[in-house]
Amino acid sequence: MKKSMDLFGDALLAYSKGDRTPMYFVSGNYKSENDLSRHFRKSTKLYATENKMISLCYGNILDVGCGTANYFPKLIKKGNVIGIDISSRIVNIAVNNGFNCIVANIFTYKPKIKYDTITLFQNNIGMAGSISRTKTLLKKIFSLLKPRGQLLLILRHAKDKDYIQVKLTPVWKNITGEEFKWMIYSKEYLKKMCEELNLVFEILMSEDDNYLIRIKRR
Q1: Nearest to 84 by CA among 60, 61, 67, 98
Q2: Burial 172-196 (b: 16+ CB within 10 A, else e)
Q3: Is the confidence at residue 1, as pLDDT, over 80?
Q4: In percent, how much of the chain has pLDDT > 90?
């Protein structure tokens, strides 16, 4: 996934400098444009679920898949925040904007502290790419949380299915990145997965087909 995210990082960096060349994700015969502008939204342009999620953060906060860190202007008011992302090219954008972000893979990340809050914005729960790796991701996240810590995430709900595994290939300026897998879960299936891991799953609010979820230890 890193090479694909590096191409994504190139597109984001170019966008930040005024280049509006579109980036696409290709899945089979389907090609969709990735709206790069949403990664540079100001605090006043955040969705209701995103604002609510930020309002619930506290203490030592880890943002997984931090991207350009466009949530940080509000997030840093809630506690001590660090962001991690797999691509150095993406992290450089966040760092150049003055935010505390580092290059790291959540699956191998070994911080020296435990967190009160871990966040997964923009359906980043899907980054694991499979059911088994999603379970591994959840176990890893809770190994990084304090006993009463919380995972907050925004879930893009899969309608009429338990889950959808999408294979995506990024394309930008006629450069084709490596294919990667992304998961889209129904809220019911993710709840079931959490129950299997002895975790408490709570829906806090919804906005269109996006759900704000809090997950804690039982």
Answers
A1: 67
A2: beeeebeebebbbbbbebbbebbee
A3: no
A4: 94
pLDDT per residue over 25-65, tens digit each? 999 999 999 999 999 999 999 999 999 999 999 999 999 99
Phi-psi region of 28 (alpha: psi -120 to 50; beta: other; left: phi over 0): left
The pTM (predicted TM-score) of the whole model is 0.96
DSSP the chain: -HHHHHHHHHHHHHHHTT----EEEEETTEEEEE-GGGGG--GGG--HHHHHHHHT--EEEEEET-TT-TTHHHHTTSEEEEEEES-HHHHHHHHHTT--EEE--TTT---SS-EEEEEE-TTGGGGG-SHHHHHHHHHHHHHHEEEEEEEEEEEE--TTSSEEEEEEEEEETTEE---EEEEEE-HHHHHHHHHHTTEEEEEEEEETTEEEEEEEE-
The 10s digit of each residue's pLDDT in 62-115 is: 999 999 999 999 999 999 999 999 999 999 999 999 999 999 999 999 999 999
Going along the chain from its start, the domains and CATH numbers come out as: 2-217 (3.40.50.150)
How many C-beta neighbours within 10 Å does residue 3 have? 13
Q: Is residue 214 within 8 Å of 204, Cβ to Cβ? A: yes
Q: How many CB atoms lie within 10 A of CB 125?
A: 27
Residues facing 174 on adjacent strands: none
Q: Decide if 26 contacts 5 (C-beta within 8 A).
A: no
